[in-house]
Write the structure tokens for this entry.
Amino acid sequence: MILIPTLIKMKNLLRLITLAVVGAALVGCVESLGNSHFKVECKISPELGTDSVSLMLVMADYNSVHHVATVSRDIASQAFVFEGNVETPTIAYLKFSNDTTPMFFVVEPGVTQIDITPTTLIINGGDANHDYLTYLKARAALVAERQKLHQEYLSHVAADSTIEVGLERQYFSRDSALTDSLGRITVDAINRGDLTSTIIFERYVNSLTRKNLQNIHKK
């Protein structure tokens, strides 16, 4: 299980997941259904205002997607429920009726449960989802620290426009170190070469510096 605090606006869900992750219970667990059958149960608080959810599977070549279904909330379970078959864990994403930003995760045989409220995102899934959201948690912590540093710098400048050169260098050095750390964890995640590495590469490769890119292993 991954527990991720978020904020209330659904349209910012994915951005908030990557920026505001602060705590997690890290347990990978997929309820077995047997063979290749999968079931995704996505519960979303009604106050978030989404009327329907679409499940898309990303094909192995990453050049095409398969639209599994677009469903409305099931009255009995209060969930958006998808079922189908995959032979192996497969990259997927959810599209919400009131949000153009997809939410990536991994579908695999068995039951995956996703629970979204105004304050949390919980995913009960297998090891791939665990690894992906663990990366997002680490990334979010570094991004939040950079934002805090930038606000601290701007407040200092607002109070004294003649900021001392040595202090400005300290800010720059701390920001550079955080940027390097962010690039390093992203490159390390990509270089694992597993399923979640593909998601991380597609989503975050454009955030990497030229030096970071040189450290990505050629496959």
